[in-house]
Amino acid sequence: MMWRLVSCTLCLLVSAQLSLWCVWASAVELDGEVKIEVVYKPEECTQKSKRGDLINVHYDGFLAKDGSQFYCSRSDKTGHPQWFVLGVGQVIKGLDLGMEDMCPGEKRKITVPPGLAFGEKGKDPVPPNATVVFEVEVYSVSRGPRSMEAFKMMDLDEDKSLTKEEVKQYLQLEYEKSGKPRNAAFYEKIMADIFRKSDQDSNGHISAKEYNIYGHDEL
Length: 219
Known about the structure:
By secondary structure, the protein is an alpha+beta fold. It contains six helices and eight strands. This is peptidylprolyl isomerase.
């Protein structure tokens, strides 16, 4: 009888320990880390992407579980590469992390755990607790509009707010320096997106407060 009691106690302890290990393992798997595989990298790299940079990118999203595709920027809307500011939450956290230090022309395969993707709830058509894989190709990297240096360069009249004309001039100079000047419609599209996301009070200006999302005090 005593042996049975001891055996049962040991079984319960082992079972409880295994349950804790399973919970811990699940938590680690859900949070996890972003895995980066460089598929292609050009020999010359004019500028590596960093937090606050404006980048132009195509990306395809797949479920790691079965490889089914849930997003393709080439077929979304007009099919143009996506513009966004890196590191400010305009894409999922895993992509913000996985696309740092990328060169124009570089391609990566980025595997993102649920905790850095769509989480426990998921987002249709991505199911809850799903690991996702993105195939990413970066077309261009330029400063700002979230670097403090860029703000000061754009703020020509030094009034600590940005007009559309100031932002347009800055973008034109950046693209001309890289040897890739574009037409007016190209810059208008970028500006419209920048002001839509940053001009919180819709007054046609981006104030230092609206711009300074990192909470720096240089301004």
